[in-house]
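pasting starch synthase for the record, 1047 residues
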Amino acid sequence: MSTISSRMPFNVGSTTACVRVFPHAFVSFGQDKCGCRVAFQEAAKVGKLGNGGFCFMPLSPSCRIRGRNSSGNQKRSQARRVRDPPHSETKNRTGEAGRDNKTPVHGAQALTIAPGERLPLGDGGGLRSQRSITSTDASIAETDGSGASSGVPVEVQRLASGYRDGSGVNGLMLLVKEAETNIRTLNELRERAVDELQSARKEKEDLQSQVEVLKARLADSEAKLEHTVQAREKAQLLEEEVVVMKQRLAQTEADSKALPELKEQNKALHESLNSLQHSGGKGALEAKYQSSLDEVNSLRVHLADAQAEIAKFFRGPERESAGLQEYIAGLENKIADMERQLAEANANSAEIESLKVEGMTLHEEAAALRMKLAGRSDNTSHSSAGGDTKDQSLQHQVETLQSLLSQAMAERDALLKVRRENVQLREQVELLEERIRVSDAEIQAQLQIYTAEVEAFQASLGDLKSGNEINVAHVPVGEMPWEFWSGLQLRISALMMSDMLTQEDGKELQLMAWRREKRLRDVYINQADMRDEDLAVEFKNLIQPTKRPGLHIIHISAEMAPVAKVGGLGDVLTGLSRSFQKKGHLVEAILPKYDCMDYSRIANLKELDMELHSSFDGKIYENKVWTGIVEGLPVYFIEPLHPEKFFWRGQFYSTEPDDFRRFTYFCRAALEFLLQSGKRPDIIHSHDWQTAVVAPLYWDIYVPLGLDSARLAFTCHNFQYQGVQDPAAITACGLSARDLMRPDRMQDNSAHNRINLLKGGIVFSNVVTTVSPTYAQEVLLPEGGKGLQGTLGVHSKKFFGILNGIDEEVWDPATDVLIDHQYSADNIDGKFINKQKLRERLGMASQGDDEKRPLVACVTRLVPQKGVHLIRHSIYRTLEKGGQFILLGSSPFPDIQREFEDIARQFENHPQIRLVLKYDEALSHAIYAAADIFVIPSIFEPCGLTQMISMRYGTIPVVRRTGGLADSVFDVDDQRHPEEQKNGFVFDDANEGSLSWGLDRALDYYTQRPEWWQDLVKRAMQMDLSWDASADQYLDLYEQVLSKVKV
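structre below
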């Protein structure tokens, strides 16, 4: 039998099948995936089984379900019998996680099936063995050829017989296929259940997170509510304090109003007191007091009589009689004391109070005496009646005396109170009268002084007016200050806005003012104080056909020095406009009315009487227009009355991301002002991306409305800032994003889904400039053009580079009041004085050998464009070469600011190095005047003004060859330039070695060739750095574009 497989009945569903048992092989039957396993173990592992054996691993719930599904209705209705498993079987049960425990079975368990009995499926514990089989007691017999076996059911034998015949295989295979189908279905259900479980867990986590959020919101709401309650309580307290203060104020006002009444009452009181004294009122009071004393004496007599009566009627023991006599004697003593106290009452009111208390005590003792007398009267009834009568009489007299005494005391108290109040009232009245006298004296003195000053002022004003009329009348028209002509221009504009002058008349008068005609000057001087209506009549009498003496130029800009300055743009606008004005052109400027402007630098600031409405976001908004004079130039300030408060931010450029909206609104309002005011300028000049949208607005919207006289100029001061935004943002000012989002118009060259304002200024303007010729060449390359090099190439015929200048009247060491000692190129000794003063001011070494050290300076914004790493290197290099270094500036970048703050702390007490990390206008002037060498190591520099200012003050620049620096500073060792142009030191590369080469040469020339250095200083100070030549270049461009229009 060891080589022949045996068979064993096995219950599957509703069918009992015979399963082959291989004695020396291991066969796995079942589904590991679902946890159902029937294992045949090798005979070697089960020593007690002779021919081999098998065991059943516990069924998982899924297998039990499959068992139920595979059985029929008859099987489900069949009763199932479950026996408890043996202790050894617990090792094979399914764990809590729902997976089969695959721990190996250490003791093989045999299955015994009784006749007619089937194994139950799905009883919660898996298949269980019925009893153990040993090698000597085996309940499963081997089948013979006929299939009969003792202890084996008939159905099993038939199935086994059918299995041998092959007829029962089909049924078994059907059951297996049905079981596999059920297994797949259950697997799908299980996966779906797992998915639903995960979804439920996720929903639970979401709900928990929502609960946490709601809890946080609830806590925040409670905190806000508590804060609101506290705020309300504080508001209530403040309201109560306000009410109290109002009451105090009302009381103070009432007191001040009641002062006359108080005076009248005091006067009446004085009169009453005087009349009282004259009428003998005081004597009457003293008479009453004497009468009270007489009554007291009378009371004493009556008490003596009472004593006699008591002695007569008293029949008690001697001890009591003696006690009564002693008490009466004490009473007499108290009466005497009372008399003394009454005599002293006039001197001390406090003793009167004490006397009252003692009087009350006396009254109580008298009552006690009456009680004793009443007790003694019980023994003598006849005598008692007489005693009661005497006692009642005595009591009446005592009460009368007490009443009189009380009245006297009350009158005395009233008199003392009146006296005290009268004294206090007199003191208060005297104090008030004294204050009134002092106040009246002060008022009279101030009034006299004021009257005298007014008279003197009126006299001086009259003299000044008469003298001014005489002097102004004799001043040549050409020498009249520009403030006068600008004020006249604004006055004429105001008359035009108020319809007192027609547009034609106003333009003619402006032309006369433009020509600075003497007759217009004389009329305005003589009639300046007249009403507008009368002045308009006088002006109309002067109107004659005239010819324009020059161009009418209007700048629209975000900056203008010195009232609204952030960078070089403000200096350029003011300097260029003043140069135009000196050349005889009419120049006006339009700026936003910032809340942070330097209003002290604006003369004659006033609001125009006009209603300016502009469109934005599809709505109409109102604007105020103000006029003023800045550096002799007429300026219009537009103040939007927009709910977003565009220019009320406390700074010129906002930290909020709405500068695009702010300045597109301003540009639309500026053009609307030109249209409504009837101005017909020749040139409208806009600057940088903030006002670049003026060009497309002008052509698309305002030319069709009639504002068509001007041609457009646009200047970009730095191509790094371009005003890029989403296309929808441009529609707010009335432009069409669909029309402008094209490569040849305003579509950004890098981000094709964005719109570029700077590009719009280039495309739609008639002439485009930048601030130096070299920078104009650099921006045609990718590195300098910042994405706009292609657009500039397309429009290169109208693109020019013009070097900026400086206002030599503002930057002049001969007149600069912010430096310690003025000097000029003819005498530069004052420069050394300023150098010593600055050293002392900053605590740097200035004596002995330190006096001869070269002073190197740098005044700049600490931004990457300025080459901050090279500035840092120049500090240490100067120290190595034996020089001194001063840095003035700050950084908007926190990392750079902290880096230089660390350097400043390192050299905090160093005698040769000083870092001032802030912007200080006055200190910058002092540094320009004191320094010997000025370092400007910019990575790129469109133009730069500091090198020009430093040369104007005789400070020699050391610069990198880039942009405007290359156009204004020429190296002293460069033989390509004539000697008269050499004014500084230039290096090429943006690295420390190249900077050291330029700086070292400057320091060496300073120390080794002092006389040559003095000549270099004078040559630099004498160079023409003004706006004159640059302004002529701009005017040439204006004339070119205007001439094309005429043709």
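The longest helix spans residues 169-278.
The first strand starts at residue 6 and ends at 12.
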